[in-house]
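Lab meeting minutes (informal)
Scribe: AK
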Amino acid sequence: MKSALRLGIVPLFLALCLLLGGASAGGFWENMALQLIAVAILFGALIIRRGAPTSAPGRRLIALAGAIALLGLFQLVPLPPSLWSALPGRDGVARAFALMDLPLPWMPVSLDPAATIASLLWLLPAAAVMLGTVRLGSFKPVWIAWVVAAIASLSVVLGALQLAGGAGSPWYFYRITNAGATTGFFANSNHMATLLVAAIPFLAALYLHARRKRRSAQHATALLVMVGGAIAVVAVGIVINTSLAGLGLMVPAVAASALMIRSRNRALPAWSGWAVGALLAASVAAIYLAPIGEGFRANNLTAAAAAADPESRATSLGITAKAAADHLPVGSGIGTFVNIYPAYEDPAAVDRRYMNHAHGDYHELLLETGLPGALLILLFLWWWGARSVAIWRAEDSDLFAMAATIASGVILAHSIVDYPLRTAAIAALFAACCALMAEPRARVGQREPERADKARHLSAD
């Protein structure tokens, strides 16, 4: 019982994150509650020693997470006036002090330290999921998969209720939301689509896990029908969600999941990985050309139309790239996008609506963290790529680690054209995927040596 409770810590907390952490904006009590629980898990990860050592991939993942935290803290360190005023993008701040006839004070790299602190606190749930898995070993992979599959299914049901109730449906949980579309437990319909697509490989892994325990042909057929039905429900949820991102990313996710199922019986052809990569690239390209917030209902999918639309991803990413270039090499500070972006917009195109994020996490991170952040992104992508190759090439690869490579790849691809990782829910899911890639099984200690007088027997399964 005690062991089950310990192994349920991360799956239970991940479930809470997926249910309560669906907003990318601050000011919600649910996010504060998740951060407080995360602090307790992180404290346990720091003081409790595990029986088994952390794996080498796990240590590298922890080092990358620590580097991200240090970068954020560095941006809060006060610098002398002669230093910060010489940084690109600080001319306006220095002129403001000069106009008020005030001496330049010591200031940090971040142009909005309060926003940077808030953004660092936002990372706590994801950090707790990752360290709770890698350091504490407080998880079971199959339980994490069931959590993702169950909440994705509930999201489809909730989305149907939201559609039935119309734009004023009481089933929407956030005041600022995509009213009239299915959002599930999220404020943004695109982020619900991310969860649904990420659930597909975990459903496939659950099928393979159950089939491994029941090898009869009848059971295999029944399980295949069950997982096919579950994936069909998720697919319907993606269609009624009307997210172009969900519809586009579903294709490579299903293809990769099918390859995972096929790989358990026979070797995969050499071209299969390239085919999935091509599908993924085509999906991202289609999403990039779409107007923001219109899903596949929009018809402005040409490059020329996207470039002329002030609310297209092409426009958003182009403006963000220019702002990022002006703030190199150190960036404007984590969480400062909403303050920097308006200064680069065309005044004639400005209306009541505003960009809360760049609709491209890599662009936004380049603006906010500069070259140090870009280096950390590259180091992480190298770690992720190396682990993905190692997992898929292993002779006896863990099913849930393979599913985690697909789900995390979906989130990384979606982050090119959106900001799913800005929600505690998707950030926690992504952290769980990375942790499963680093530490597929919960190693709690060394197995006790088998007694010589203990009877041995063979098991049929």
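Next up, CB showed the second protein from the same session:
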Amino acid sequence: MNVSKKQLDEAVLHNIITQIEADRLYDFLHVQSEDQPNFSFTHVLYYMGGLIAIGAMTLFMNLAWESFGGLGIVIISMVYMLIGMLLTNHFALKNIVIPAGICATFVVCITPLLIYGIQQRLGFRPSDNNYQEFHTTIKTHWLYMELGTLVVGILVAVKYKYPFLIMPIAFTLWYLSMDLTVILSGGDEDTALRSLVSLYSGLVMIGVAFWVDVKAHPKAD
């Protein structure tokens, strides 16, 4: 039930509550509503800004980043992750849930880039691969990036418990399922096999999500 300022003013006119109580109640309800996801202009801007930042550091990474070298990528990634965590804590302390969740998700999404930079710096990555291929090709050496992202994602999700954090975890699990398929099949990159693995992995994740949604129905999940 949505309560408007006009309704509270009418309650004051009928001597149900005082003007001070009406103002305090309206402020309280306004803050509470800001924490609930809805298709409002403000929330659309939140997610649009977050997705632009995430996309810039993941899907739209270009070959120019290779010029920074492994150490440069590590430093830049760590700076961005630090800023993301500081913003997450800032918003979390103010109980501004949606921006906090987006910033925490941003941190998790940068994790593969950080690990990629570490691999490049230590010489563990084949020289003929670049970060752009992480989202388009199946390679066994992506496994370290995926496992590291899962670890960071789970740790951040346990600490902050924001639902948007499940997005990069779900994508990483999907990538991991395809790379593991290649490893377990002895390097066979058959498209039909990967399609089946993606199909059943997706069904399992949908089933788990539905179970969590049912179990956590009385509260935020």
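CB comment: The helical segments are 5-13, 19-34, 41-56, 69-93, 97-122, 143-160, 166-184, 191-215.
No objections, moving on.
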